[in-house]
Amino acid sequence: VEPTVKSGLGRPVHIEILDANISLPVKDGYYNYKNQQWTLSKSSAQYAVMSSKPNQSSGNTFIYGHNRKNVFSNLLNIKQGSVAFVTTDNNQKFIYRFKYSYTTNPSDNGLLYYEGPPQLTLQTCSGANFENRTLFVYEFIGVTNA
Length: 146
Prior knowledge:
Layout lengths: L11 E6 L4 E8 L1 E2 L4 E2 L6 E4 L11 E5 L18 E6 L3 E13 L14 E8 L5 E14 L1
Parallel strand pairs: 2-5, 6-9
Antiparallel strand pairs: 1-2, 1-7, 3-4, 5-6, 7-8, 8-10, 9-10
């Protein structure tokens, strides 16, 4: 029997992907329209605050991070069915299953306009000179109390 969990709208504070050896704090991330840059950290992932908070109904929760050994470099090796856990500041743990990935250019912001079932999108840099962005799309599969 699935526990009944109230679907609050807490902000992501931690992400864990066991088979990719990722366990990181998540901090709020912002886009600076003047210099067209995202806030980044060398030791944590960032939650794009203009994206949806984790929930059970709709929208895209967007978390991004550097392609660094201690951040998101292991994302490039994940396999179909990999599971991600996102813990929120109101003690809920959202569970997502990896569906697919794709590579695009840094100016592609289409994911910010997503409308549909709840999903998680993770992003990191890719390419020989980190000139591309690889996005990893996960489907929502459940929520529990953290």
